């Protein structure tokens, strides 16, 4: 009696797992896009103000206080500064990949119609991007971002690879003269 249910159970199980994965992808994409848009709004507001550094600092403090009171955790001064920096660092890419007005004019429609991987200018989680922004070398940051996407690295794996110096080891392996005689040249890790 149990056997006829097995194929039905397997199909429903796969459907539910797929739906959960799509939901996680949508939440991650939605969070990153929203943070990008928050950063854009902050930067545009700052650019209209005089004495930008002092003015911007005070604005972020006040904004942090008000957003935290209404929406809870996640809107500290440092988090808002991350969102601001994220916009400044990734704005050029968004302009290359999308219509300039896509986010500013149609963010709500994007958020309503977002489906798994259908609109993913930022395929990694917000935590990935916060970590990546801590890497000052632009080429190194791009390397780890590309590897994280292609190998589907978790944040933990990204940090592990970064801490192991993967980028530097691969850069050295391309410049064979810098590799010590007898030293094994590292190969690219498999996902």
Which structural class best describes the helix and strand composition? mainly alpha
Helices and strands, in N-to-C order? HHHHHHHH
Question: How would you sum up the global shape?
Answer: flat
Low-confidence segments, given as residue ranges, are 113-118, 179-191
* Percent strand: under 5%
- Count of domains: 2
Q: Estimate the helix proportion, in percent.
A: over 70%
According to DSSP, the number of beta strands is: 0
Q: For the terminal residues, how far apart are their CA atoms?
A: 42 Å
Mean pLDDT, to the nearest integer, reads 79
User: Tally the helices: what do you get?
Assistant: 8
Rg over CA atoms: 21 Å
Largest sheet: none
Give the tags.
disordered C terminus, mainly alpha
List the helices and strands and how they pair.
Layout: H1 5-47, H2 52-71, H3 77-97, H4 102-113, H5 126-133, H6 138-150, H7 155-163, H8 166-174
Task: Walk me through what this model shows.
This protein is flat. It contains eight helices and no strands. By secondary structure, the chain is an all-alpha fold. It has two domains: 1-114; 124-191, no CATH class. Helix 1 crosses helix 3 (77-97) and helix 5 runs antiparallel to helix 6. The two termini are 42 Å apart.
In a few lines, what is going on in this structure?
The protein has 191 residues and is an all-alpha fold. It has helices at 5-47, 52-71, 77-97, 102-113, 126-133, 138-150, 155-163, 166-174.
